[in-house]
Amino acid sequence: MPLTDLECRNAACPAELKRVRFADGQGLYLEVAPNGSKRWFWKYYFDGKEKRLALGSYPETASKAARLRRDEARLLQQAGSDPAQERIVAKLQRKAVARSG
């Protein structure tokens, strides 16, 4: 069952733990640190290896937006591309364009 906005807002991590993860569904989860920071991640498998993709910080990235980003990344994965690698390539391309222009 997906996380509600109230559950995301109230999510907390005890000080004695490094982090706590709250599952949203289909590999998406909210990771909460003891300092209160909350970040969305998508866990997926590519070439037989487990990977994770950062999708944004909560509340800047709402649960609905995180789900949309997960779905976009899933489409890349289904097309045979590694979403994390695609993000790195896109970032390098943006830097190259900024330097040349």
TrEMBL record:
Keyword DNA-binding: no
Record domain Integrase DNA-binding: where: 3-87
Bilayer-crossing regions: none
Record's keyword annotation contains Protein biosynthesis: no
GO biological process, one term: DNA integration
InterPro entries from the UniProt entry: Integrase_DNA-bd_sf (IPR038488), Integrase_DNA_bind_dom (IPR025166), Phage_Integrase (IPR050808)
Family per similarity comment: Belongs to the 'phage' integrase family.
Protein name: Uncharacterized protein DUF4102
Organism: Roseateles saccharophilus (Pseudomonas saccharophila)
Organism ancestry: Bacteria, Pseudomonadati, Pseudomonadota, Betaproteobacteria, Burkholderiales
